[in-house]
Design brief:
By secondary structure, the chain is of the alpha+beta class. About 25% of the residues lie in helices and about 35% in strands. Its main location: cytoplasm.
Length: about 550
């Protein structure tokens, strides 16, 4: 899958590029460098995560405000996984820049690395994506204009991450299930912590609101106490789940912070923490809730299910964390080709599917290998991996093209490599599982079958294409059969760009695997032009069906 943040840190200069014969620097980029002093450290002599969150939030906020031209507030922060701790005397380097702007909100990418001044070594500590909202009324944020390949990747992926944030909370409901009682469990209530903080001017930002990073630091403090009460040791905060700020807090507010251990696992525990504010006799206002995972190497007791809902939701969130880390957070080369599909990880597999296609689409170093009948074949060899793309134009509206190509069951009408195609599961409007059977490339040999997840996306705005992404998954209900060899697709699919109301540019991508290479190797070597006849047939298929209302969903008719 995709590596979520792909900036390259070289020395102390950050991410610069040659652009139009000048050194290019992203106009929204903001840097902060801090040396870790004893006053920033915890009892272990390591930088307090709360302090790091404050620095990250302020850097990201300044980047957002540079782009928006007005005050901005933190709306949410995606999952953060801390790969390393930072000791006293080390330097923390933070880079933040706006990846994409929407109507009134924007995604800011944050990269944190640590520097050892004595050895000149640097290493990544964490990365994060935060959403900021402009405080102006009637605001229409200007669009981010990507200049480099990496900026184009992050711009494209930001729309998919935004989609995932909007449906994140819905997944918990689907994962709640029975759980196990433990003999050595202790009551969770024993770990409960409650603390109050008075918001003073030093805790406020330049907008006279409580600094979001300060709230996160206070939350981390009470969560650490709750975790320590269970394990009777000094736990290490390893990750913070995605969270949203529900409302603002101001100078003079009393901030009530509550934390409790929701569940414990083999060497980790989840702590739930919330922040509420009040002033005078006002009722409590919910400001924020978060779930933090602490790690302890020593064995410690499990918690009793005295808070049944909290306990079960913690189990569900652990499943989500594993799926996200397994499917989303690791590099493309580290993800197995076929990942087991089930409804609980559907969202993350769909994200992986679309993101991998967007990453190929953002590459700018393709080499033209062959051209025939206005169909172009390009190749790209990188990191011992071969990718190819086929490009053509058709005189069919983009939306009609999208609906025709996204129905894989009709692909055998123009692609001779699709002998059979059956729908296994229509997961939702955007995701469908298919079984595809392809012929043998050798006389008398076995054919191949593929279990494919097809993920469709309509454009987020005019700067996005229509997308149809394909990748292999595994299903227990459809194991390999004796009659065919199970093939696998790492990443493939179509991008569909509207060039005018009647002209559409179609690009087909494929990250070649051993199961795919036999079908296209002669084309890439220049010994055949079957790709041209296949995509010419695709063009004829689209033009023959461009007036077919049946191709469009009922809502579009």
């Amino acid at each position: 899958m995709t590596e979520p943040l792909t900036w390259k840190i070289t020395g102390r200069e950050g991410d610069f590029h040659e652009h139009n014969d000048e050194v290019y620097r992203n106009p929204t980029e903001v840097k902060m460098s801090q040396i870790v002093l004893p006053c920033h450290a915890n009892h272990c002599g390591e930088l307090s995560v709360g302090q790091l969150l404050k620095w990250m939030d302020s850097t990201a906020c300044l980047s957002a405000e540079r782009h928006a031209g007005c005050s901005c507030i933190t709306a949410s922060v995606d999952d953060i996984h801390f790969e390393h701790t930072i000791g006293v005397g080390k330097v923390v380097n933070i880079i933040a820049k706006v990846n994409r702007a929407f109507t009134s909100s924007m995604e800011v990418g944050i990269l944190v690395n640590c520097e050892d001044l004595y050895t000149d070594r640097q290493w990544k500590v964490c990365h994060a994506f935060a959403t900021f909202v402009a405080r102006r009324t009637e605001v229409q944020l200007k669009q981010v204009l990507p200049h480099t390949q990496m900026e184009q990747m992050e711009y494209s992926l930001a729309a998919e991450r935004r989609r995932m944030r909007l449906i994140h909370a819905e997944i918990i409901t689907d994962l709640l299930s029975s759980s196990t009682e433990y003999q050595d469990a202790v009551p969770a209530e024993r770990t409960r912590v409650e603390s109050v903080e008075l918001v003073l001017p030093p805790h406020a930002n330049h907008q006279v609101s409580t600094f979001g990073g300060q709230i996160m630091a206070w939350m981390e403090n009470v969560a650490t106490i709750a975790a320590s009460r269970l394990c009777h040791a000094h736990p290490t905060l390893r990750s913070i789940d995605m969270f949203h700020f529900r409302g603002p807090s101001h100078i003079g507010d009393r901030l009530v912070l509550k934390a409790i251990v929701n569940n414990s696992f083999k060497h980790s525990m989840e702590v739930g923490v919330c922040a509420e504010a009040y002033k005078g006799g006002e009722p409590l206002r919910h400001i924020n809730s978060a779930f933090m995972t602490f790690e302890v190497l020593d064995r410690f007791p499990h918690v009793l299910q005295d808070g049944k809902r909290r306990y079960l939701e913690a189990v569900a969130r652990k499943k989500i964390r594993l799926d996200r880390k397994y499917i989303i957070s690791c590099k493309q080369t580290e993800v197995p080709v076929s990942v087991p599909w089930d409804p609980s990880n559907q969202m993350y597999l769909s994200y992986n599917n679309v993101s991998a296609l967007k990453l190929m689409d953002a590459r700018n170093n393709w080499v033209l290998t062959f051209e025939k009948n206005k169909v172009r074949l390009y190749t790209l060899e990188e990191n011992h991996m071969l990718c190819f793309k086929v490009e053509m134009h058709v005189s069919v509206p983009a939306e009609q093209t999208f609906h025709l190509l996204s129905d894989l069951s009709r692909r055998k009408e123009w692609d001779r490599h699709y002998e059979e195609c059956e729908v296994i599961n229509q997961a939702d409007e955007d995701d469908t599982l298919y079984r595809v059977v392809t012929p043998s490339v050798t006389k008398g040999g076995k054919g191949q079958d593929f279990i494919l997840l097809a993920s469709r996306r309509k454009p987020c705005d005019a700067r996005d294409p229509y997308l149809i992404a394909l990748r292999s998954v595994t299903l227990p209900t459809h194991p390999p059969t004796e009659n065919s060899t199970r093939g696998e697709v790492l990443s493939a699919g179509f991008t569909i760009w509207e060039e005018s109301s009647t002209v559409t540019k179609i690009t087909y991508y494929n990250q070649a695997t051993p199961g795919v290479l036999p079908y296209i190797s002669t084309d890439i070597a220049g010994l055949s032009s079957s790709f041209s006849s296949t995509f010419s047939a695709c063009s004829h298929f689209l033009e023959a069906n461009k007036d077919s209302l049946a191709a469009l969903p009922h809502s579009a008719q």
